[in-house]
Write a structure and sequence with these properties.
Length: 381
Amino acid sequence: MSLRVDVAVVGAGAFGAWTAWHLRRARLTVALVEAQGPGHSRASSGGETRVIRMGYGSHEIYTRWSVRSLELWKGLAERAHDRLFHETGVLWMARESDPLTVSTAQTLKRVGVAHERLDRAELERRWPQIDFGPIPWAIYEPGSGVLMARRAVQRVVADAIASGVLYVRAAVAPPALRGRLHTIDASGRPIAAETFVFACGPWLPLLFPEALGGRIFTTRQEVFYFGTRPGDLSFAPPAMPVWIDFLDQFYALPDLEGKGLKFGLDRHGPPIDVDRDDRLISPETFAVIRDLVGQRLPALRDAPIVGTEVCAYENTSNGDFVIDRHPDAPNVWLVGGGSGHGFKHGPAVGEHVAGRLRGDSETEPRFSLATKSSEKRRVIF
Ligand SMILES: Cc1cc2nc3c(=O)[nH]c(=O)nc-3n(C[C@H](O)[C@H](O)[C@H](O)COP(=O)(O)OP(=O)(O)OC[C@H]3O[C@@H](n4cnc5c(N)ncnc54)[C@H](O)[C@@H]3O)c2cc1C
C-alpha cells in the first residue's frame, strides 16, 4: 500500500529522529523510515553514552546549539520519566599554550555558559584519582555531562510516534535523482512526499555516492569500559566528571549505570565498512588505551575490560555538519556528517532542518555541501 506524507525522513538516528519530531511539531505529516531500529548497534547513535559539552573553541554556533539541545534533551527525559542525562560536569584538559581551550573559555563567557578555570593545584585537590600529567590547567563546565545515547534516541522516536509521526521499519533503496523526487522505495513499499530528508549517518555516502562520495570519511572508532573495584565510588559521579584531552585526542566518561569507566580515542581510526565489518576491537587500539589509562588513572592500570563498542564516525573534511539540498533534486535534503561530535546536537539540528524546510531558518554557509572538500582538514573538535 502506498503512503503519502508531507515529509519522509529516512534514518532514525539522533539527527533524523529529532528532525521528524520537530517537523511533526510544525504540524506536518511525517513518515520516519528506519532500516534497523533507532540506536541499533551499527548506527553512529548506537553507543551506550555520548558527551554533551558546550565548549567548541571559537565556533559559537555549536556552543549555542549545545545549550539549546540540552534544554530539549532534558525536556524529553522529563516526559519519558527516564534519566537520559547525567549532569556529571565536563573537564577540558588544557596545555600551557592552548589556543583551542583559551578560545573555548572566551566563547563560553560570551554566550553565558557557567564554567570555571582551574589551576593544577585545584585539579589535584578535586580529583585526586586522576594523574594530570602534562596538564597545567583546565576548564570545567559543571552543567554539562552525559546522554544515555541509545536509549535517548529510542525515546525521541517513541515521543515522535506519540505525537503522530508514522514510523516505518524498512530499508530505503538509493533513489534515482533526476529533478524533483516524488517517491522512495521503502523495502518495496512506495512512500510519496513533498520533501525527503536523508539523515542516514555513515550510510549517507553509500546512498549518494556522486554527491557525497569522497566527502564523508567513515572511520572505525573503538571504546573501552574498565571495571572498577567493588564498592569504589571514585570513578562514578559525583566523584568523576567527563574529561577530554583534545591535544592527545582521548576522552573518559565516568562509570554510569554500572557499565564501567569509558575510555575512547577521538583521533580518527581506519576506514570501516559499516554493513560488513565485525565490531571487534583491535589489539593496537587496546594497547594505546591501556597505556593511557595506566598513566592518567593509576588505580585502573590493571583493571579488567568489562565491555567494548566499535562505532563509526562519519567525518566531513573539517568536522562541520552537512545540512543542504541535494544538488540534483531541490526537494531532497542531506543531513549528516556528525563527525564524532553530532549526537548532542540532534535536537538543534532537527530544529534547524525543520526551519529550513519551512523557510524560516537562516541558511548557515558552514553546513553547505560546497564547503565540504575531499581533503581532510579538521577544524571542529
Ligand atoms: C565512538 C563514538 C563516540 C562518539 N561520541 C560522541 C559524543 O561524546 N558526543 C557527541 O555529541 N557525539 C558523539 N559521537 C558522534 C555521534 O554519535 C554521531 O555524530 C551521531 O550519532 C550521528 O547521528 P546520525 O543520526 O547522523 O547517524 P546514525 O545514528 O548512524 O543514524 C542513521 C540511521 O539511518 C539509518 N539508515 C541508513 N540507511 C538507511 C536506509 N537506506 N533506509 C533506512 N534507514 C537507513 C541507519 O540504520 C541509522 O539508524 C560519537 C560517535 C562515535 C562513533
